Please model this.
Amino acid sequence: MRKVFAGIDFGGTRIKIALIFENEILVDKNIEAASELTFEERLADIVLEIRELLHGTDFNLAGIGFAFPGIVNFQTNVILSKYVKYPGAEEIDLNAWATANFGVPLVIENDARAALIGEWKHGAGVGCTDLVLVTLGTGVGTGVLVNGAPLRGKNFIAGNLGGHTTINSEGNICNCGNIGCVESESSTWVLTEIARKSPDFSRSKLSQVEMIDFKSLFQLSETGDALAIELKNRCLKVWALCVINLVHAYDPQKVIFGGGIMKSSHIILPYIQGMIDKHAWINSTDVELTEAFQLENAGILGVYELFKQKYK
Ligand SMILES: [Zn+2]
Model:
């Protein structure tokens, strides 16, 4: 029997399940995140999906890895923070779940840190010792590699909270409790609020969208919509300041960008590069800004690598 690993990436809208054999993803499947279900019910579905992917093959499951959107204790496999999309996840004994259903060990890592490790071993960061990964999407996720090791810290938050660093001391209270976070200063909720107060609002096509998202912002700004351009520039500035903070804190060889908005990387990356040249302590030639190579699979490849490391 050949030994195969199951990686599960818990996204905001979908859960990706993949089987990996000797560094290659053999097969994968997406299911809906379905936040109306409890995490326990979601796990029951995942058991069925893994069994179905294994059915009829000569593969035997060797282990399971979770890339989870929250703070997790990598040592004990306990989820430490609540996440609205997966209610009750922090109450479940995941080790017991993996043993009871498959008789295998488990690893769990924060999704951005897992993606960082995936990119380090299989993507844009191969051969590097110092990396920062930033995922730009509904939220801003970050992960950090320093001197060839993923940064975790005492409470497992190190490197993960780039999106919750304060960039506006006069800003709103973020849903995390902190003030003027990168994430709250560029959230679609804040953008919608700013847009509605703008005198240009009624003339802007943004008045026809119910909730402003980055996709509509970038699309409408291409058409010359003044308010869309203004809000897009606000987001770019917030993200660039976030990256400058991360570069100053961790001095990486590369900053790797992922997330749904990377279709506009031709606008985002040159802008951030320009801001680094203008405002950072180093030049943009001292740090490479690059798109992730494994946009879809970095998290799963990351937990696969962590599993090999933890249970070798
Ligand atoms: Zn925050």
